[in-house]
Amino acid sequence: MSEQEQRLIHGQWSSRMAFILAASGSAIGLGNIWKFPYLVGENGGGAFVLIYMLCVVMLGVPIMMAETLLGRKGRRSPVNTLLNLARQAGAGRLWGQVGWLGVVAGFLILSYYSVIAGWSLAYIFKMSSGFMNQVDAEKARTAFLALQGSPELQFIWHSLFMIATVSIVSRGVNRGLEAATRYLMPLLFIMILALDLFALGSEGAGQGLSFLFKPDFSRLSGESLMIALGQAFFSLGLGMGAIMMYGSYLPDGVSITRASLIVAGADTLIALLAGVAIFPIVFTHHLAPGMGPGLIFETLPIAFGKMPAGHLFGTIFFVLVFFAAITSAIALIEPTVAWLYENRGMSRESASLWSGLACWLVGLGTIQSFSDPLHWRIGDKSLFEWLDFVTAELMLPIGGILIAVFAGWVLSAETTAGELALGSRYRLWRFAIRYLAPLGVGLILLRGVGGM
Question: What is the mean pLDDT of residues 272-282?
């Protein structure tokens, strides 16, 4: 399909920078601001960071390049892209199911991601109102549990977040996705730098930076290595069709390799800057860096509440979390919207509305999982835990493996080499996508299956 035909169907990024900002927004989300810092805290600090960065280069970048080249070569939604490319390569129609795997995974992830992202909206108002000023650990935990235990409050924040997501996606590639990330990503970067400057002026700055960047391999376990491998894969938003979808809007003249490296670098940089913002504050107030998921919503509000102008910087922090979440959310729902637009003859506005409504309805189950966990259980897991497990531990790794196999073994070397334009370095990518990527993601899958 020519660029002109693609432009008539969906639209196209106006420049390489537009793609980089959008793809970075897709990758940069709650995993960077919320999950990465507490994983670093739980797994020994600097040594974990070093292993994580190595995994991004060896595993994440090759798969991101593969997804992007598949998207640009196919120029359609992930389902139709893989169907068309499989047909051209003489492969079976079952490869289209790999596209479905990613689309459904992204849809399900957004259904619960929206609920958690809604908490950031709630905390923007909590911090700006001064509600968290001078709270102790017990009051901070009580406030967070009260939010989780209230289906009415979570309903409001979940609904507002989905409305914001749908309103952006319905405006299309250029006026919606590109326009949103063009402004949100620079603002996100400015805000996290402001928080970093604030944190570096605290008493615990030296201890926090040492914890984050000074490797101590004695604190690294085999489980830590697996967690770093998984975080490198999930943090870049791979296996869910979003990068493939964004790649379909990429002009032919843009270097996929250079763009993928920049996106992976930006994703890693934001995760590290989040750590720079968080750990000096944690050590200044003698808090435990390995607090787990509660680090953002329970631990940090205590610290912000004790600081001069803490309500201001706390508000900025949760606005930052919201911006990171919304740029990922629009990428998660875009493959579903594109498929409805292509296959059901819907307008983009209708496709966005129906996709968002369905996602919102599924999200109500996650709300009930948090507010009434004893009754919303299937076996030993709540509905939310099952959704998280099935998508993150099964669907995404399976999708990642199959994408690597398709790009490395089904498509010809001539096809992929032509898209990547790597020259003599093409052999390195082909080795990585054929052998290293399936092996690495396979280990993530085995770890997930072992946790059933």
Answer: 87
What is the C-alpha to C-alpha distance for residues 227 and 364, in angstroms, rounded to an integer? 29
Distances (CA, A) of 390 to 104, 105, 301, 394, 420: 11, 9, 31, 5, 32
Find out whether 77 and 339 touch, Cβ atoms under 8 Å.
Answer: yes
Q: What is the dihedral of CA 390, 395, 401, 404, to 10 degrees?
A: -150
Residue type, 215: P
CATH number for the domain harbouring residue 82: 1.10.4160
Query: How many other CB atoms are found less than 10 A from the CB of residue 71?
Result: 26
Q: How many domains does the chain have?
A: 1
Summarize pLDDT for 212-239 with one digit per residue, the tens.
888 888 878 888 888 899 889 988 999 9
CB atoms within 10 A of CB 379: 8
Provide the domain limits for residue 364: 3-450
User: What's the pTM value of the predicted model, to 2 decimals?
Assistant: 0.91
Which residues, in sequence order, are CB contacts of 215 under 8 Å at separation 6+?
Answer: 45, 46, 47, 49, 50
Cβ-contact 75, 82 below 8 angstroms: no
Rounded Cα–Cα distance for residues 202 and 279 (Å): 10
Sign of the dihedral defined by the CA atoms of residues 164, 169, 173, 174, in that order: negative
Total residues found in the chain within this entry: 452
Provide the sign of the torsion angle of the four alpha carbons 411, 415, 421, 424, taken in this order: positive
